[in-house]
Amino acid sequence: MAKTGFIGLGIMGKPMAKNLIKAGYDLIVYDVAEQPLKEVADAGAQAAGSIAEVAQNADVIVTMLPNSPHVKEVVLGGGGVLENAKEGTIIVDMSSISPVATKEIAAECAKKSVVMLDAPVSGGEPKAIEGTLAIMAGGDEAAFKKVEKMLHCMGSSAILVGEVGSGNVTKLANQIIVAANIAGMSEAMVLASKSGVDPEKVYNAIRGGLAGSTVLDAKMPLVLEGNFKPGFRIELHIKDLQNVLDAAGVTQCEVPITSEIIGMMKELREDGKGQDDHGGLIQYYEKKSGVQCRKK
């Protein structure tokens, strides 16, 4: 019986793969880094020595990689998935990449009777560990139904939103909203602090009203502790927002909020904070205003 393949065992991929193992999936996994590969193998997966080995032994292959060039290389490159996959293989790319790139890769896969779904996720490392990610998929409905049960082992929701590429368009929409929420939270709390009002009390006062949000509850407690350990790094959010700008250019869509926030994030990256959690965007405002929003 064919195994399920998983390529890319980073901050997100590693716990996602572990959740598939817990659910009983027979996994064959690969990553260029030895430590996460060993860790997932110790959890019960078969460690592959190459991408080709994964492709040759799996009929469903999940990829969880940093950006479009990495997915193109893994799927289309020499010794990659497409070169070694069997006809009828389903590739489920759960990376957050450009929808333009997704469609290009899927078109090449179709030439070899390999089906590609794009199924990016939202929720960061905590929800990846819990298995409660929000999964937004694009592609063939029949292929989606074949992998839907598997997706629900990694996420609390898995919704097919349209044709291939639609998943990544949905993820870009998600990332715009998350970035805008974090920026709004940061701006508000720095204003409160600068005005001499305790930001923790402001947070507790507004979280139950219309300004309350999942983002506010996930990020503000960490900000108050000064904890910017990455669940989702600023540099990765820059990548996603750049994909927003690229997609907006293709569709001739105005995205002024995205343009403003990516500039803030790039400035933080220049300050050496690109590895911080994206909730660390508040540090941009704190630096400009000369205050910190922390517990008193």
C-alpha end-to-end distance: 58 Å
Sequence of secondary-structure elements: EHEHEHEHHEHEEHEHEHHHHHH
Number of helices: 14
Question: Structural class, judged by helices and strands?
Answer: alpha/beta
Question: What is the helix content?
Answer: 40-55%
Q: What does the largest sheet look like? A: 6 strands, parallel
Backbone shape: elongated
Describe this structure in words.
It is a single chain. This protein has 296 residues and is α/β, with parallel strands linked by helices. The protein has helices at residues 13-22, 34-42, 51-57, 68-76, 81-84, 99-111, 124-130, 141-151, 166-194, 199-206, 214-225, 234-251, 256-270, 282-289, and strands at residues 3-7, 27-30, 46-47, 58-63, 90-93, 115-118, 121-122, 133-138, 155-162. It has a 6-stranded parallel beta sheet with strand order 3-2-1-4-5-6, sandwiched between helices. The chain is elongated. The N and C termini lie far apart (58 Å). The mean pLDDT is 97.
Architecture blueprint of SSEs:
Elements: E1 3-7, H1 13-22, E2 27-30, H2 34-42, E3 46-47, H3 51-57, E4 58-63, H4 68-76, H5 81-84, E5 90-93, H6 99-111, E6 115-118, E7 121-122, H7 124-130, E8 133-138, H8 141-151, E9 155-162, H9 166-194, H10 199-206, H11 214-225, H12 234-251, H13 256-270, H14 282-289
Parallel strand pairs: 1-2, 1-4, 2-3, 4-5, 5-6, 8-9
Antiparallel strand pairs: 7-8
Helix pairs in contact: 1-7, 4-6, 9-11, 9-12, 9-14, 12-13
